[in-house]
Amino acid sequence: MAMWNSYVWVESADDAASKVRDGGGAVVMEPFDVMDAGRMAVFTDPEGAAFCVWQAKEQKGARVVNEHGSLNFNGLNTRDPEGAKSFYGSVFGWTTLALPGGVEMWTLPGYGDYLERDNPGLRKQVAEVGGPEGFEDVVASINPIPGDQPDTPPHWSVTFGVDDADATASKAKELGGKVVVPPFDAPWVRMTILTDPQGAMFIASQFVLENRDLTTAGSSAAQAA
User: Fold this and answer.
1) Is residue 216 helix, strand or coil?
2) I need a labelling partner for 87 at 20 to 30 A (CA). Which of 128, 154, 163, 188 fits?
């Protein structure tokens, strides 16, 4: 099955493998070197959601963010949020941030300090647009899989930033992809769920400041993308 992979930066892929095992996950591919670019491994969490880790060497990861067509976000779709919190907390040190409307985000304490270093004034910018305290530490989202979707497996999803969600959905269909969930408004964004011609699913998300006060995250199908 075609799918996008989610990678998490780590200081040591080997240490991450040990923590995954200790936390009840599985090592699908043992840590291995990717020439001089880095060292990586492939794991699954206790529910079976697959993810990768990347120990950077020459290749540091994404260089373009928050622009049209760039990787914008990752989300864990899970039936056991509390179990996930325990697992990912032990492996990566992640905590969570609760937002209005029942939305929860993964946070890495101190991540905002790293972002502020490269983007001075970031915290002030987040506050000025109405972002909640601590949002600068967000690294991913937690998306509970609705009970009416028994066939949806736990998995990680990827979101790409776009300038126009509606235009992106139209273009994807034109190029042989499929619109799984048509564009809809959600807190802070307008988004759509698509698949490419091979069936790999992804989300296209347009930042819409006017949507910041919305409290619903769209259809149940969208919540499990």
Assistant:
1) coil
2) 188
What's the total number of domains in the chain?
2
Q: Which two tokens stand for residue 127?
A: 């506050």
176 and 83 part of one domain: yes
Residues with Cβ within 8 Å of 131's Cβ and at least 6 positions away in sequence, in order, are none
Amino acid in position 34 = V
User: 37 and 77, same structural domain?
Assistant: no
The shares of helix, strand and coil residues in the chain, as percent rounded to the nearest 5, are: 25, 35, 35
* Ramachandran sector of residue 103 (left: φ over 0; alpha: ψ -120 to 50; beta: rest): beta
Show the DSSP H helices in 143-185 as ranges.
Answer: 165-174
Structure tokens at 62: 């994404």
- Which structural domain range is residue 197 located in? 71-223
Write the burial class of residue 216 (CB in 10 Å: 0-12 exposed, 13-18 middle, 19+ buried).
Answer: middle
**Residue 147: closest CA among 47, 58, 78:** 78
**Position 84, amino acid:** A
Instruction: For residues 44 and 96, state if they share a domain.
Output: no
Instruction: Check: pTM over 0.90? Answer yes or no.
Output: no
